[in-house]
User: Fold this.
Amino acid sequence: MKKIIVVFCLFNVCLISCSKKNHEVTYYFFPLKRVVSYEKNDSAYVIEYYKNGRVKEFSVADSNSSLVYVKTYCENGHLIDVSRSDSSSYHYIKYHCNGKIAAESDKINSTMIGLYKQYYENGNLQVMGMHSMDYINKPYQQEGLWTYYNEDGSVDYIGVYLDGKLIRTQK
Assistant:
């Protein structure tokens, strides 16, 4: 009985099928499928699928195997996240599976800076505040007033941050 369980576990966890042609490899990790495409410049594109066949994640890795771009999707097909690890600045938006915005902020070097907003699934604001603009020495550090909201949109409380530490709250 132990041998059957071990074989079954190995069968489900390990690589079940691998076919290599034209620089593309398909892996099956029950219940997921992952397709890896290798390019001439040594970069790789990876697509991982849900059991229902929809894309779960699309990612690009450079020649050093470092992820440079990742798109993540819900099982229903809605885009929920796009992340980049390059040194550029961009406006970051994350979504709930229902398609509504979950969070948004500006990013530099993959670090949130400036105004940050987070939303409930119903679309109402959950949190709003500022991250430090010094993304090198104070990454993700909260600064100034942060307003926290209830799901119905009413203000729960306001927090005041200095050097990333909560120094005061008010209702």
